[in-house]
Design brief:
Length: 174
């Protein structure tokens, strides 16, 4: 006859204590340590993010910046092309736009409302051409603008941060 094999009752408290007293195999210890380390890493990331948010750190939104270069009235095509090439170093969202003398005069007439005092002596030929571009970013890097300001035919360089999302606009100095 054969002896019956002993069975382990899952509700037997003595078998639990026997298992708890036995040392764990090395592979199980490493898994336990790895799990503890992963949990601590996640807990640390959550805690540091919470501290940063409570302390006032916020995501900085992107803003629009408009760069406008007014040319002198007697600037020639070669000077304008050199300025346009220098402005090409800036990341323009929609490219560089040219405002002709006629377009500038038309804008002035619209703003002045055909007021003869403001329009006295002003003709389309007396208006300057201008180059402009729009760039988007968290901040504005002036980069090539000081060199553009010194170029022949340039009258004025203006950088404007447009208002948006409850934030005021401003003219920047480069």
């Amino acid at each position: 006859m054969t002896d019956p094999q002993p069975t382990h009752d899952p509700f037997d408290v003595e078998s639990w204590t026997e298992k708890a007293d036995k040392p764990r195999p090395a592979s199980r210890r490493w898994l336990h340590l790895l799990g503890t380390a992963a949990g601590a890493l996640v807990l640390g990331a959550v805690a540091s993010t919470t501290v940063m948010l409570v302390a006032g750190w916020r995501y900085v939104p992107e803003r629009e910046f408009t760069v406008a270069v007014s040319m002198e009235p007697d600037a020639d095509l070669r000077q304008r092309d050199a300025v346009e090439q220098a402005l090409g170093a800036l990341p323009a969202r929609d490219g560089i736009r040219l405002e002709t003398r006629e377009q500038a005069y038309q804008k002035l007439r619209e703003r002045a409302g055909n007021d003869p005092v403001q329009l006295e002596g002003v003709t389309a030929e007396s208006m300057p051409e201008s180059l402009s571009l729009t760039t988007v970013g968290r901040d504005f890097e002036c980069g090539p603008l000081p060199a553009v300001r010194k170029m022949a035919g340039v009258d004025r360089v203006r950088v404007v941060m447009r208002p948006g999302a409850g934030r005021p606009g401003a003219e920047l100095v480069c």
